[in-house]
Structures are given as structure tokens and as C-alpha cells.
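Problem statement: downstream parser choked on a complex file, so we are re-checking the raw output for the zinc ion run. The parser issue turned out to be on our end (a line-ending mismatch), but while we're here, posting the original submission so the record is complete.
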Amino acid sequence: MPSKPSSIELADTAAELMQGIAGWLLIGLGLGALLTGTGGAVQQAGTTDVIAPLVVVVFGLLFIVSGVVVNPRFRRRLDRRHGLSQFGRIRTVENRTHSTTEEQPEPCVVCNCRSTEGLVRRYRQEYVIAGIPLWTASENHNFYCPDCARGELSIDASTEESTTATQTVTEPE
Ligand SMILES: [Zn+2]
């Protein structure tokens, strides 16, 4: 697997950082507008002048929403979201095929043989509100060599818990 030239990687990181900063700025602006607008609306309540601060409140909300969408960290969380009805602590299992040339071979958790290829199963305990992960309580991963991975995946299919969200991710070559 050819790795990306470092200049492109650097540009990606810089772009992500800029998007993150832009996101936080938008959220900050939005919160400022929201507070100012709400204060104004309370003062002008009952008069026709209440329209202007309410418009400011709406713009504040729009800023906050676009700030969240533009921020790569929030976007990744949104990508990992679960069903809208999911609240509280949930356990997720993510399967990822592992094929590396640069990393050290990892020992398989079943047969203990070392391999650079196989399956990485990532376990997460996270707290979600309306399906959006807010906080990851714990995260760990198990590595399976290709032989044991096949066995694991077939066991998995038959004893799937309904509370466990399983996501199979294949890394792009
Ligand atoms: Zn194994």
C-alpha cells in the first residue's frame, strides 16, 4: 500500500486544523449572537422592536449549527452516530481489516502468532444522546490473525446482541 506523500498529509492536517478553528469561531460567534439576541428580545418583549433581536437569535443558531458541521471532530462523531432513539451508555464494536507495511506485526489474541495482516476489532463504551457519541468511556482493541479472524466473524454473525452496533470498515488501499 503506497503511503501518501508527506506534503499532502501536512496539507490535510492544516486544512483540518483550519476547519476546526473556523468551526469553533462560528460556534463562538453563534453563542455571542444568541446571548445578545436573547437579552435584546427580553428587553423589547411586547414591542414591535422584538423582531430585530429574534433575527439575531436565529442567525446565532445558524452559526452554531454550521460551526458544528464544519468542525472535522464533530463531523467524525456525526459519522459514528447511532439511531436517533439511542440514549445513555452503549457498546460498539468496529471491525477493521488490518494490513500494514510500516507497523510492527501484532500478536493474535487467540493463537498468539504475530502477523502484519488480520482483523482489528475495536471495542468502545460510549455515552450517546440522540445517537450522537458525546463521550467515549473506554476504548480497546483486539487483533486477530487472518485464520482466527474468519472464525471470529462467523461466531459473531450467530451470537449478535441486539444492543451492540457492529460496523465493518474496510480500510482503503
Ligand atoms: Zn490467530
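For whoever reads this later: The pocket of zinc ion is lined by residues 108, 110-111, 113, 144-145, 147-148 (CB under 6 Å).
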